[in-house]
Amino acid sequence: MRWFVLQVASGWELKVRNTLLRNRLAARVPREETMIHRGGKWTPKERTLMPGYVFVGCEIETGEDLPAEVYYTAAKVHGVIRFLGDPRPQAITDAEAEWIGLLAPTDAALEASTVRSEDGAVLAGPLLEMLDRLVKIDRHRRRARVTIPLLGQEKTFEMSIQLEEGTNEAPSETTADPG
């Protein structure tokens, strides 16, 4: 499956994805379950990792153009701005698709990665697969900054982390389950 990037109005990602799914197109929006600090409490909330982007997949061979029916079906959806690519829609590379697959393996939102509070070591979660792309961990804000390639550019975004108190010993195999 080849994936293309739709630029959409910010806040419309899930509405566009749901419309594309109803039109029998594969569509993904990388999301996560996060904790927001409001009123002195941490409350759960679902958040889009890449605001303004929806990934659309179709079964074509490498090097083939986006089929016209997919283009026109997606382009007419309310909230869609354009397909990314110059001068025509450009599929992301297989390596880029792997990164998107880590961020949106299913339609469900990702759970926050677990990070040890003392030293910032990643113990579990999706960040384990992205250690080489990890730019910074901000334990105070409970966020990790990650950079991945997307259409020849580096795309930086933040992911939530969950802090765990513990020792500086290496995590056991049961604690470091990436799933």
Written account of the structure:
- The protein is α+β, with helices and mostly antiparallel strands and 179 residues long.
- It folds into 2 domains: 1-106, 2-Layer Sandwich (Alpha-Beta Plaits); 111-179, no CATH class.
- It contains 3 helices and 11 strands, in the order E-H-E-E-E-E-H-E-H-E-E-E-E-E.
- The protein has helices at 13-22, 68-75, 94-103; strands at 2-8, 26-28, 31-38, 41-48, 53-58, 80-83, 113-116, 122-124, 134-138, 143-150, 153-164.
- Strands 8-7-11-10-9 form a 5-stranded mixed β-sheet, with no helix packed on it. A 4-stranded antiparallel β-sheet has the order 2-5-1-6, with helices on both faces.
- Strand 3 and strand 4 form a beta hairpin.
- The two termini are 23 Å apart.
- Residues 169-179 have low confidence and may be disordered.
What proportion strand? 35-45%
CATH architecture descriptor of the largest domain: 2-Layer Sandwich
Number of domains: 2
Q: How many β-strand stretches?
A: 11
CATH superfamily of the largest domain: NusG, N-terminal domain
- Catalogue the unreliable spans: 169-179
Q: Which oligomerization state do the chains in this entry correspond to?
A: single chain
Q: Predict the CATH topology of the largest domain.
A: Alpha-Beta Plaits
- Shape designation: globular
How large, in whole angstroms, is the Cα Rg?
Answer: 18 Å
What is the mean predicted local confidence, pLDDT?
87
Helix segment count? 3
Strand/helix succession: EHEEEEHEHEEEEE
Strand order of the largest sheet: 8-7-11-10-9
The first-level CATH class of the largest domain is given as Alpha Beta
Residues in helix, %:
10-25%
Termini Cα gap: 23 Å
Give the helix/strand class. alpha+beta
Largest sheet data: 5 strands, mixed
